[in-house]
Amino acid sequence: MLFVVSGCGRFAFQPDDCTDCFSLMVQPATWDQARTACRDRGPTSQLATIASSSENAAAATLAATIPFSAADTNTNQRQRMWIGGNSLGDTGAWAWDSGEPFDFTNWRAGEPDQVSEHCLIMLGSQDGIWDNRACETSFEAFLCED
């Protein structure tokens, strides 16, 4: 269940089992640019950590609202947004940028697949499944958690 929380903002929602707000930022960014933009929002803001199926559903609902251009003909890849998962650490294991445990996952079948793709996107066009991508790629949106 999603509900708008006063103080969360116009495009922000709060999952029912979470005390933080998710804020959808629709602007092209690489993963690092997205992380910086989230952190610039305030001392507790970061790229979103998805810790449960209800948080994933909330994030997927927001991702499904991301506009796409008519030139984007690959419908399986529309409505992409960065979230805070990455495998940038020394061990190469997947972790949340927030440092929270990486216990819940919603990977697309066969993912994560490429050793060179260290950052996590959510696909709104596919009900919030996850895919790993090169961190230097620019996608149309990202999700902050406040």
Provide structural commentary.
- This protein is of the alpha+beta class and 146 residues long.
- The protein has one domain: Roll (Mannose-Binding Protein A, Chain A), CATH 3.10.100.
- It has 2 helices and 9 strands; from the N terminus they run E-E-E-H-E-H-E-E-E-E-E.
- The protein has helices spanning 31-40, 53-63; strands spanning 2-3, 12-15, 22-25, 46-47, 80-86, 95-96, 119-123, 129-133, 141-145.
- Strands 1, 2, 3, 4, 5, 6, 7, 8 and 9 form a 9-stranded mixed sheet that branches.
- Strand 5 and strand 6 form a beta hairpin.
- The longest helix is centred in the middle third of the chain and has 11 residues, at 53-63.
- 38% of the residues are buried.
- Mean pLDDT is 85; it is low at 1-7.
Topology:
Layout: E1 2-3, E2 12-15, E3 22-25, H1 31-40, E4 46-47, H2 53-63, E5 80-86, E6 95-96, E7 119-123, E8 129-133, E9 141-145
Parallel strand pairs: 5-9
Antiparallel strand pairs: 1-2, 2-3, 3-9, 4-9, 5-6, 5-7, 7-8
